[in-house]
Amino acid sequence: MTRTGGFFDDFGSGELDRSKWNVRTTGKTVNDEQQAYVDSSETIYIVDEVPGADGGVLVLHSRYRPGYATDGGRSFDFISGRIDTRERFQFMYGSASVRMKLPAGAGLWPAFWAMGNGRWPDTGEIDIMEYVGDPEWVSSAVHGPGYSGEAGLVNKLYFPDGNDATGWHTYTLDWAPDRLRFEVDGATVYRVTPPMAGFFGSWVFDNEKFLILNLALGGTYPFKTNGIRSPYYGIGEETVNRIKNDEAKVLIDWVRVDAQVGGPAPLSESSIRSEG
């Protein structure tokens, strides 16, 4: 397992590099999500020559497959993709970035995030980019003991006119012992510090994390934003039609981690103030 140093994947090999990524399939589901994750070239694949991208592009593609049965005997009407670097690459401190293009559609729920090993939320969750299908905004959040789930520390970025989440953007976590800073296209959009977490519980971001990329459908976070109950929890009819028309897919140009061996020195008060 790579625990320190860097990580990079530009998906130039033509197929998913399974020495870097695990493909996850649905067992237990959370948040009332409406998809089954499957290990299939229908839902996870690489394409070339995508406008705005350089070389190979990873695609996470949701599909309408009514009555799909999992190995555990559960039935779903949608399938989708989820990959992670657990036990292949894990890091503590540094920066983690992804360049990606998101689909429009109320209830589509892609994310780029990091999790600690062990019991959730005691080892921490860092949501570098979450999106529930509204092109006007994306969000970032952290979860830990006392500030998890719906009570997480969260912030939204609203894109300026003429620019939205369906274009190419780079989403970054800059992680140091005394803060988690979230950036979109190099601009800081949110920062979480130990005192902010300490108001609710303990700071659980001094341990190794692995990366996750997924495309969920529906569930609690989309529902609490769009209020849609039917035809699926958190997914509207228009989005269902987009999935049926094979339009619901996330494009990922590259993923990069610049991990800092041993971690960086804590920022001084003056350097914190200079960040704005």
Lay out the secondary structure:
Elements (H helix, E strand, L loop, with lengths): L5 E4 L12 E2 L11 E3 L6 E4 L9 E5 L1 E7 L5 E6 L1 E3 L9 E8 L6 E9 L8 E6 L6 E7 L9 E6 L10 E8 L2 E6 L2 E6 L1 H5 L10 E9 L2 H7 L10 H8 L4 E11 L9 H7 L1
Parallel strand pairs: 3-7
Antiparallel strand pairs: 1-18, 2-8, 4-5, 5-18, 6-7, 8-17, 9-14, 9-18, 10-11, 10-17, 11-12, 12-13, 14-15, 15-16
Describe the structure.
The structure is a single chain. With 276 residues, the chain is mainly beta. It has a single domain (6-263), classed as Jelly Rolls (Sandwich). Helix content is 10%, strand content 40%. It has 4 helices and 18 strands. It has helices spanning 194-198, 220-226, 237-244, 269-275, and strands at 6-9, 22-23, 35-37, 44-47, 57-61, 63-69, 75-80, 82-84, 94-101, 108-116, 125-130, 137-143, 153-158, 169-176, 179-184, 187-192, 209-217, 249-259. The longest helix is centred in the last third of the chain and has 8 residues, at 237-244. The protein starts with 5 loop residues before the first strand and ends with a helix. 42% of the residues are buried.
Which characteristics define this entry?
Jelly Rolls; mainly beta; eight-stranded antiparallel β-sheet; 276 residues; seven-stranded antiparallel β-sheet; disordered C terminus
